[in-house]
Specification:
This protein is mainly alpha-helical. It has one domain. It contains 3 helices and 2 strands; from the N terminus they run αβαβα. The chain has a two-stranded parallel sheet with strand order 1-2.
Length: 77
Amino acid sequence: MFDKIKETPVIILNGFTSDEINKIMKAIKNVEGLPRIIFATTTETNINWTIKDLINELKQEDIEVKKALKKAIEERK
C-alpha cells in the first residue's frame, strides 16, 4: 500500500492564507524537473483523515478532474 501512495507526489498545506497558498504553489510549479504535484489544503472535512485516506481521495479527485478537462477539450473540437 505504501508504494502505491508513495508514487503520487502530494503537498498538503495547513495554516496558510489563500494568498500564501497561491504563492507557494506558483513557486513550486516554477521549479524545473519536478513531477506533477497534487496540492491540497486541510479542511474541516479532511483534518481528521489519515494521510492514506487523504492521498487516496486526492488521487481520485485528480482522476476526475483530468477526465472533465479531457471531455471539455473534446467538446470544443
